[in-house]
Structures are given as structure tokens and as C-alpha cells.
Design goal:
Helix content: 40-55%
Number of domains: 1
Radius of gyration: 16 Å
Low-confidence stretches: none
CATH superfamily: Glycoside hydrolase/deacetylase
Shape: globular
Strand order of the largest sheet: 1-2-3-4-5-6-7
CATH class: Alpha Beta
Number of strands: 8
Number of helices: 8
Distance between the termini: 20 Å
CATH topology: TIM Barrel
Order of helices and strands: EHEHEHEHHEHEHEHE
Mean pLDDT: 95
Structural class: alpha/beta
């Protein structure tokens, strides 16, 4: 039986975290660089624990003004420090709450850059490996981040997107373009099913800040159940 993880970016101060946390199996929690603070991290971790959801760090470029969605000129060693410090910040709060981190997924512009730039991907992989080799790296399926994580001996979950359109080369259509987002519920469901059934991804992202986020998430989860696709978080080695 096919298994798939459903993840969402949470603790960002937008969307309905309470509702999404009852649907997804893993949560990517903002670590303070693009959104969030200690209080929101703690609250989101507690919410994840109550719902049995795996807890992940969601590090970003240090750019709250642009919500981490603009490329920044950062050297690899700076990206390493950015990511490592954000993982450690969330891990500290998690320990205080009796929880452990399960995975790391970069956010926004950093995520997209890591999917195509080996140096950036390697900086993130080194930061994750130095934090804990048990952490799973979530990255764009087929992208440089997944290859880099494997090279660093880390487990991975290749990620697909239900509500984003793709370029022919498998990268995401930039948000700056009008066709970047999928707003039709049926289209989002069919894309998520295709990604899961063709085994192109091990985890599917459900963005929590869109106007249709909860409806999409519920429909996708129901569609997976009907297709006999088991929903569970990726397993740590």
C-alpha cells in the first residue's frame, strides 16, 4: 500500500493552524526568521503534540519584511549559520515541551534556491547533519536539495505541491507569475493524487495561507483514503 505524508507550513501567523493540524501528518514550524517567535513556536509545538503531528523546523532567509520570499545574497557559510541557529532555536523549545524534531524544510526563496543551487543545498545539508543526523530533509522532489542530503548521509522526503504549478523542468512556477497558484479544488486534488500515485513525492505540501487551504486539505486527504493511500509522516531512520 502506498504511503504519503501531508505537510503544512504553520506557526506563521496566517491561516487556520488549528484546523490544518487535524488534517496533516507533519508540521513545518516557522523559526523566527521569516515569521514566528518563541511564543508561536511553543504554541504550535503543543498543537502538533495534541494532534500527533510530526514537528519540523522551517528555516528561512532572515527576511521578515518579505516573508522570506525574496532571494537574498548570502554566502554558503552564512546560510549554514542561518539554518543551524533556527533549527537549534526550535529544538530548544521542543525539548522544553517534551518533543523532538522530526524534519527540516527550508522556506520560500531559500527552499527554491536550494532546489537548483548545489552550494546552497550543501550548506543546508551540513547544518541539518550537524544539528542531528536523525532529521529528515524535506525538499523539492528531483531537486538539488534531495541529492545533497543523500550525499551527506541524510534521509529525505521528496516533496510535491498540490496547489502550485510546475515548470517543464520540475521546478515551481515563481509566485510572481499569475499562473503560479492552483485555485481550483478539483485540479489540486488531481495533482496531489498524481504525485502520490506516480511515486514522484513522499510528502505533499498543503499551504495554509491560501483562501482554499482547509477545503483543499480535506478533499486531498479524503481522495487519498479512497485511493487506498495511507497517510503518515515520513519515518526517521
Amino acid at each position: 500500500m502506498r504511503e504519503i505524508d501531508l505537510n503544512a507550513d504553520l506557526g506563521e501567523g496566517c491561516g487556520d493552524d488549528n484546523a490544518l493540524m487535524t488534517i496533516v501528518t507533519s508540521a513545518n514550524i516557522a523559526c523566527g526568521a521569516h515569521a514566528g517567535d518563541e511564543a508561536t513556536m511553543r504554541e504550535t509545538i503543543r498543537l502538533a503534540q495534541r494532534n500527533g503531528v510530526a514537528i519540523g523546523a522551517h528555516p528561512s532567509f532572515p527576511d521578515r519584511e518579505n516573508f522570506g520570499r525574496i532571494d537574498m545574497q548570502r554566502a554558503p557559510h552564512e546560510i549554514y549559520e542561518d539554518v543551524r541557529s533556527q533549527i537549534e532555536t526550535l529544538a530548544t523549545v521542543a525539548r522544553e515541551e517534551g518533543a523532538i524534531l522530526h524534519h527540516v524544510k527550508a522556506h520560500g526563496a531559500l527552499y527554491n534556491l536550494a532546489a537548483r543551487d548545489v552550494a546552497v543545498a550543501d550548506a543546508i545539508s551540513r547544518a541539518v547533519a550537524d544539528a542531528s543526523t536523525s532529521l529528515i530533509i524535506y525538499g523539492l522532489a528531483g531537486g538539488a536539495q534531495i541529492e545533497s542530503a543523500h550525499a551527506h548521509g541524510l534521509r529525505t522526503a521528496g516533496e510535491g505541491f498540490a496547489d502550485r504549478r510546475y515548470e517543464p523542468d520540475g521546478t515551481l512556477v515563481p509566485r510572481s507569475r499569475p499562473n503560479a497558484l492552483i485555485n481550483d479544488e478539483e485540479e489540486a486534488v488531481q495533482q496531489a493524487l498524481a504525485l502520490a500515485q506516480q511515486e514522484r513525492a513522499q510528502t505533499i505540501c498543503l499551504h495554509g495561507d491560501g483562501p482554499h487551504a482547509i477545503a483543499f486539505a480535506r478533499r486531498i486527504r479524503d481522495a487519498f483514503a479512497r485511493a487506498n493511500i495511507t497517510i503518515r509522516a515520513s519515518q526517521q531512520g
